[in-house]
């Protein structure tokens, strides 16, 4: 795939809500391969923190860190799925272009 036709994130998927408003959003224009690699890194870190949380009973900080990493990972993967799923991708791209 050449550089001009490489699929990229559309930047439509929000995460981390506060009062029903998204505080963060996946950035558009990131090559899908890089986005998936980053999601994999986030999932790995979340896994390790969740594992630590299972053994550390005196604090919930590990669990909350894992929660937020999982939320970010899911948003990245959802954004990629919107790009590679033909029907959903077209509808979402149109919405993103209007913003």
From TrEMBL:
<dbReference type="InterPro" id="IPR021427">
    <property type="entry name" value="DUF3077"/>
</dbReference>
<dbReference type="Pfam" id="PF11275">
    <property type="entry name" value="DUF3077"/>
</dbReference>
<protein>
    <recommendedName>
        <fullName>DUF3077 domain-containing protein</fullName>
    </recommendedName>
</protein>
């Amino acid at each position: 795939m050449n550089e001009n036709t490489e699929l990229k994130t559309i930047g439509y998927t929000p995460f981390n809500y506060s009062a029903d408003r998204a505080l963060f959003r996946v950035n558009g224009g990131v090559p899908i391969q890089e986005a998936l690699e980053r999601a994999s890194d986030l999932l790995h870190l979340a896994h390790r923190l969740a594992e630590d949380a299972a053994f550390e009973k005196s604090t919930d900080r590990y669990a909350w860190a894992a929660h937020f990493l999982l939320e970010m990972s899911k948003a990245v993967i959802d954004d990629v799925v919107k790009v590679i799923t033909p029907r959903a991708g077209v509808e979402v791209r149109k919405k993103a272009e209007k913003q």
